[in-house]
Amino acid sequence: EAEVAQSPRYKITEKSQAVAFWCDPISGHATLYWYRQILGQGPELLVQFQDESVVDDSQLPKDRFSAERLKGVDSTLKIQPAELGDSAMYLCASSLERGYSYEQYFGPGTRLTVT
Amino acid sequence: AQSVAQPEDQVNVAEGNPLTVKCTYSVSGNPYLFWYVQYPNRGLQFLLKYITGDNLVKGSYGFEAEFNKSQTSFHLKKPSALVSDSALYFCAVRDSGGGADGLTFGKGTHLIIQP
């Protein structure tokens, strides 16, 4: 069964450093999402891509976070500089298309710890 | 704005007994509703969804959920609980008429099945 791939699985970084996460969606999925899940809470959407275009980044802290999906396949989420409050699980998800009822398939996540 | 409430942080059920995990939602239009399950240090796994049609939807691992429009609820149920059902369960919603389709999640409910 096809899965969403994410790397690294765990990342420890010092505050003020840069960090990047990678996601490879299920083959053929046009829509890609990045969510942040703080311990004890549900995931919150950061950014949504349709192919290589950003559909929604209203909740992305753009002063320090950036996301790209240059060729409309895999994606990178970057934080620079990292802050203590960024410690969380970062989840990538993909779905076949947007604007329909398709479910989202989630990767295993990257657990970020900022010290 | 859309929102999801999961009123119980934890639900305890004896193995073999029926289980219910509660969820209520708020959207401006018609809802698309989802249930996901999360095991420790893992991403979210899709269980089931309600889009339209029959109010009772069946999903993976014997789970089902009932959509109640008048009560704006979408409770997750299973007739006979297994110890392996113990996990963190998330209810999620999106507005069917929205342009962006990121999901809004509840805070999650820990389901503990006691042998």
Low-confidence stretches of chain B: none
Rg of chain B over CA atoms, rounded to whole Å, is 14 Å
pLDDT < 50 runs, ≥5 residues of chain A: none
Q: Please identify the structural class of chain A as seen in this structure.
A: mainly beta
Which sequence of SSEs, written as H and E, runs from N to C of chain B?
A: EEEEEEEEEEEE
Major sheet attributes of chain B? 6 strands, mixed
- Estimated helix fraction of chain B: under 10%
Distance between the termini of chain A: 37 Å
What is the terminal separation of chain B in angstroms?
A: 41 Å
Number of DSSP helices of chain A? 0
Oligomeric organization of the protein chains: heterodimer
What is the total tally of β strands of chain A?
Answer: 11
Q: Quote the beta fraction of chain A.
A: over 45%
Total helices of chain B: the number is 0
Mean pLDDT of chain A: 93
Task: Provide a concise account of the structure shown.
Chain A has 115 residues and is mainly beta. Helix content of chain A is 0%, strand content 48%.
Question: Features of this protein?
Answer:
heterodimer, A: 115 residues, mainly beta, 4-stranded antiparallel β-sheet, 0% helix, B: 115 residues, 6-stranded mixed β-sheet, 52% strand
